[in-house]
Automatic annotation (TrEMBL), chain B:
The lineage of its organism: unclassified sequences, metagenomes, ecological metagenomes. One of its GO terms (molecular function) is oxidoreductase activity. InterPro entries: Cys_rich_dom. It comes from mine drainage metagenome. Residues 3-84, 132-216 form the Cysteine-rich domain. One of its GO terms (cellular component) is cytosol. This is Lactate utilization protein A.
């Protein structure tokens, strides 16, 4: 997917002024923040469970090749075929090839963010395969020709009324208003798509090395239909999603739905292992697993490796005050919020995403809820350091930072400069003791007054032995 | 207890009264307080903007000025977090220095954390009368676990009624240079905070970090609220708020 993060600042202005979006985003707090809070305490040993989850992910990442090869061996032994894709284009080529090989004309798809990374739907349409998204949110977005704005709740930026309008227009049916009616309408349209699809496409939340299984957690049941009804199943995910054992998965699955949607467990947890056996009542005849690198392996062994622990729960964005105010589209690529502000520069280019590492107050709400303890603010800071080292910061910012440091390391000069500055600011503050404009810092004063300083520094008053 | 007091660059320049209020509280707690004369800034602006080198230089300056004290106390959770959590990280490549910074960090406290847990101050000099609401600044809360300490100290004041706002632990949008670079977004976040403050009907919004307080006051005043007082917790506790 093309990275449009360069447009971040302009998008912020647009999103802050979008009243419908703001209304939709206001539901994040009650639905996800309070939702998580209500169930996360069910885990009696939460700190230990998070430590264990992080350790499971680190164990894999420290020897990823080993675990991937074991996964491939086990999956192959059970009849699946594992494909390795270095780039997004490789994924599209491989999946189009699989479709051609099996004479696929229609595909039903459940949610996969990696497929968004590749814009797989477009590639398949060009290869003559009709693709239907079957996750309700993704289906709505397919109708609207929009990208997901959240990795778990892709259509969180739309309200019910917008969906009702969209359905009435695209389905050419009388406009429904109730959520149950809208869901029924979608279900009636999607049902034949499941039954007729030649190929099912899914993501995978985890790959299990000891069994060669792909595991998906879903709520709507579409994931299970897509992966068991059609004769061909293609699972697409990132190479970092492997974990050693089913026991490890059980630890991670205690955390994933609770962190993501505030559920103790999702409606479905599907462990997809191998092709349909003689005694099986369902399952695909052909099972292909496509594993995408797309820059992930470059992070192994680097000071950014911790980012690969991510299990895509979305808790960081749900709790991020920046995401809560602008939504996901402003971030410009596949992954929004704090995890996206790190992944987008790493996978898609820091030079194309200069704002993303900086658009954070480092409030730390993301790291506090991350189930696998990714130090998100620290990683954002490291990206800022890379920007500094590579000369990607504006000349003005670099000058201000260097000048401040230079002055702060010279206490006598610093004392003089600050004494002058606070006196000038006190004068400018006038009777109101407020500065309405800050020269060179309009970012502050466009929306805020600056409370004028007292006019004397603490250090000079203290030295004079005075107390104000 | 010999306490080195680091006033922080913001309090030094913008609201020196908070510094004197802090001294009064530390003395009330029985501390011998020293204010090293050549202190300036902890280096956080550079550190958080990716300027690792300048942060290292300022950390070394800080170490030279404060290493000899029993405790170091600051009226800011953000700067205290810089020293406790991030200074040792800056010198990972030098185990000896990193250990010295870690030892210094363990003796470094945010003001209310120190007064409540270490100095065990039970009677404060202040006499504030009115309803207050408390904003939990991010670094103090999440890096240093400062939440109940300021509330416990305020609870010793008979005239103070604490009326909690919703989402008191949500960021106010300051974020240092963030507030300049992304002014519009920062202002919106401040606006959300101000609405929660106003909804409590409190006479004063109180907090432990001047950066956040300037941000909140700046938005309140711009939107026409000239009556809600914006106070550092040290000012309320010490009675130096007038």
């Amino acid at each position: 997917m093309q990275n449009n993060a360069i447009d971040f600042k302009r998008q912020v202005t647009v999103k802050l002024a979008d009243i419908k979006l703001q209304g939709a985003l206001s539901r994040l707090q009650s639905r996800f923040v309070e939702g998580r809070s209500a169930v996360i305490s069910e885990i009696a040993d939460l700190p230990e469970t998070r430590n264990a989850a992080a350790a499971i992910r680190d164990r894999v990442l420290n020897d990823l090749e080993h675990w991937l090869l074991q996964f491939e061996q086990q999956a192959t032994a059970r009849g699946a075929i594992v494909h390795w894709a270095e780039t997004d284009e490789d994924v599209n080529r491989i999946v189009a090839g699989i479709a051609r090989q099996h004479g696929v004309r229609t595909a039903a798809k459940s949610k996969s963010m990696v497929s968004e990374e590749c814009e797989l739907n477009d590639a398949l349409e060009q290869a003559g395969v009709e693709v239907m998204e079957t996750d309700l949110g993704e289906y709505i977005l397919q109708l609207a020709h929009e990208a997901p704005s959240h990795i778990v709740a892709p259509v969180v930026h739309k309200n019910k009324e917008e969906v009702a309008d969209l359905f009435a227009e695209k389905h050419q049916l009388p406009r429904k208003t109730g959520i149950a009616e809208l869901c029924r309408e979608a279900r009636e349209i999607l049902r034949p798509a499941f039954l007729n699809a030649d190929m099912g496409i899914s993501g995978a939340n985890f790959l299990v090395a000891e069994t060669g299984s792909a595991l998906i957690v879903t709520n709507e049941g579409n994931g299970r239909l897509v992966t068991t009804l059609p004769r061909v199943h293609v699972a697409i995910t990132g190479i970092e999603k492997v974990v050693p054992t089913l026991e490890d998965v059980s630890t991670l699955v205690r955390l994933l739905p609770r962190s993501a949607t505030g559920q103790s467990i999702t409606n479905y947890v599907s462990v997809l292992t191998g092709t349909r056996g003689d005694a099986d009542h369902d399952g695909p005849e052909h099972f292909h697993i496509v594993l995408l690198d797309n820059g992930r392996s470059k992070l192994l062994g680097s000071d950014m490796q911790e980012m690969l622990r991510c299990i895509r729960c979305g808790a960081c964005m749900n709790h991020c005050p920046v995401y809560q105010n602008i939504g996901g589209h402003a971030y410009g690529w596949v992954y929004p919020g704090p995890m996206g502000s790190i992944l987008t520069p790493l996978l898609s280019g820091l030079e194309k995403s200069p704002d993303l590492p900086n658009a954070s107050t480092f409030c730390g709400a993301c790291a506090a809820v991350c189930p696998v303890k990714i130090p998100l603010p620290d990683l954002l800071r490291k990206l800022r350091e890379q920007q500094m080292e590579r000369g990607m910061k504006s000349r003005q910012e670099t000058f201000m930072l260097k000048a401040w440091a230079w002055l702060a390391l010279r206490p006598n000069l610093y004392a003089l400069a600050t004494r002058i500055a606070v006196r000038v600011m006190r004068l400018l503050g006038g009777k109101e003791r407020l500065l309405h404009r800050l020269p060179g810092a309009h970012g502050w004063s466009d929306g805020r007054d600056f409370p004028a300083p007292a006019g004397r520094t603490f250090r000079e008053l203290y030295r004079q032995g005075g107390r104000k | 207890m010999r306490v080195g007091f680091f006033v922080t660059c913001l309090v030094d320049t913008m609201r020196p009264g908070i510094g004197f209020a802090s001294l009064k509280l530390l003395e009330a707690a029985g501390c011998e307080v020293v204010v090293p004369e050549h202190q300036t800034c902890c280096g956080q602006p550079g550190y958080n903007s990716g300027d690792h080198k300048s942060a290292e230089a300022m950390a070394l300056k800080f170490l030279a000025e404060f290493e000899t004290f029993d405790y170091v106390v600051l009226p800011s959770g953000s700067c205290a977090g810089m020293i406790r959590v991030h200074y040792p990280d800056l010198f990972k490549h030098d185990p000896e220095l990193s250990a010295r910074f870690a030892a210094l960090g363990q003796r470094t406290y945010e003001l209310t954390d120190f007064l409540h847990r270490i100095a065990r101050l039970e009677k404060v000099p202040g006499t504030f009368q009115g309803t207050v609401t408390y904003h939990d600044s991010c670094s103090g809360l999440r890096e240093l676990d400062v939440y109940r300490q300021p509330r416990a100290l305020l609870a010793t004041m008979p005239g103070v009624k604490l009326q909690e706002m919703v989402e008191s632990t949500t960021c106010c949008g300051f974020g240092g240079t963030f507030s300049l670079k992304y002014g519009e977004l920062s202002t919106r976040m401040a606006d959300n905070k101000c609405q929660h403050i106003t909804a409590t009907g409190a006479d004063a919004i109180v907090g432990g970090d001047l950066g956040c307080l300037l941000n909140i006051e700046g938005r309140l005043r711009r939107t026409g609220d000239h009556t809600t007082r914006v106070l550092h917790v040290a000012e309320v506790l010490s009675g130096e708020e007038k």
